[in-house]
Amino acid sequence: MTNLRPIFLVEDNPDDEILSKRALKRSKVTNPILVARNGEEALATIFDAKPLPCVVLLDLKLPKIDGLEVLQRIRTSELTHLLPVIILTSSSQDCDMIESYGLGANSYVRKPIDFDQFIKAVSQLALYWALINEPLPKEL
Question: Are 11 and 22 in contact (CB under 8 A)?
Answer without folding.
Answer: no
